[in-house]
Amino acid sequence: MPTDSQCCTLTPGEVTLATLKRIYHGNVRLTLDEGARSAIEQAQATVARIVQAGTVTYGINTGFGKLAQTTIPAPRLAELQRNLVLSHSVGIGELLPDNVVRVIMATKVISLARGHSGVRMALIDGLLALFNAGVMPCIPEKGSVGASGDLAPLAHLSLMLLGEGEVRVNGERIAAVDGLRLAGLQPFELGPKEGLALLNGTQVSTALALRGLFEGEKVFAAGLLAGALSLEAIKGSIKPYDARIHKARGQTGQIAVAAAVSDLLQGSEILDSHADCGRVQDPYSIRCVPQVMGACLDNLNHAARVLQIEANAASDNPLVFSDSGDVISGGNFHAEPVAFAADIIALAVAEIGAISERRLALLLDTGLSGLPPFLVKEGGINSGFMIAQVTAAALASENKSLAHPGSVDSLPTSANQEDHVSMATYSARRLGEMCFNTAAVVGIEAMAAAQGIEFHRPLQSSALMESEFAALRQRVAFLDKDRLLAPDIEQMRLWALRDSWPAPLADLLPGNAG
What we know:
Blueprint: E1 7-10, H1 17-25, E2 29-32, H2 37-53, H3 77-88, E3 92-95, H4 98-112, H5 121-132, E4 135-137, E5 140-142, H6 151-162, E6 166-169, E7 172-175, H7 176-182, H8 194-199, H9 203-233, H10 243-249, H11 252-264, H12 269-273, H13 284-287, H14 289-311, E8 319-321, E9 326-328, H15 336-364, H16 366-369, H17 386-402, H18 424-454, H19 463-475, H20 486-496, H21 503-506
Parallel strand pairs: 1-2
Antiparallel strand pairs: 3-5, 4-6, 6-7, 8-9
Helix pairs in contact: 1-4, 3-6, 4-5, 4-9, 6-7, 9-14, 9-15, 9-18, 11-14, 14-15, 15-17, 15-18, 17-18, 18-20
């Protein structure tokens, strides 16, 4: 159970990406800004007045979706909300991991606490108590089309509050009622609109997309570092990183990437050793790193802005506006912004892997790199990195298919009432697999580039790069002859997914903002 010193206070509408990243990585307690309570209570009082007056209002005393014209009598409203949760708990597949579920729970609290959902404060306090007790709902990963919200997965979250189904505590599955007991709670009887407020919303899609962003920025940093290692390994030119080139174009990410790589290599003996070599141009995978990786960074930054807004959004339906007493049905549950953000993260992650694989191929081609064939002595008896590159090519190519935009797909649901959907949940979920693939590709490149640098000894790279080289060598040894490389590749995949990066790279990452 986290300590109070690791507490995150959620201020609805103002939660930063840095806070969301802390929640994703775990070991935090959540509290709600006390200033949010008044709006929550006012919205719930508005709902209570509607019920007392018997005013027919969608989501409060009617059926749902295509059944919205059916009026439900007051004595059956609790049954209505319970049935809604049970009937919508139709997810399938592997359970979402706890790091994603933590973000789902936190963003659901944020959304409900915006004061437009009409739920009781006790329900939000219950979610916070469960989070802080480490009780995670069991949420299957498949079954949402991203409108009307993430209905099925959020229904599985809501089951926990009813004491139905199962939860996880420290990875162990137990009955939900036992999980409630661990948090000092009893099963809830949902009040008017509460089931709908819990089920409507984009929190699952958003949490999955945030995972893609947080993992994607790691492989972005790893890709830049691997690219800098490769530049040193082939004795490439630093001139294409001259700030004047990039300012002349004006693309923000491009300028930042060129500066970061220049900072990484500042003071390199290897660079100085061939300053006057007469080499005119390197292949694009080396020369155009600022242009390609800068565009990736711009995509990640745009996605980060969209996802921070969505993580703070009131995205259920209908929404309660207590100042006027209005309850208005709209469509904030439609996750198209999240789907678009996930798709552009996918493009960035695929391209990071694609250009990395091309640099790896360059390193192994003695005619282009000037290094021993396949980066190994006694080629022929040894195959070196030959087949590691095949693995990288397979993964980079797989990501091309996975990068196909999910947001262009739609299938109508609910008897054509919900006739256009976002597919945001799939768009965001596939990012996990894509980041896994790209981390392996970039890790293989970095391992191969380190091997290439060894052939230039005793020349040293910059102090910063030599520190990174030493850390890499703690994971994988120099390849003096063929050995089993699969464990080394796994080590380097983990290297690419580490949390800490040198300042020139860490300062670029959108998830560190705030």
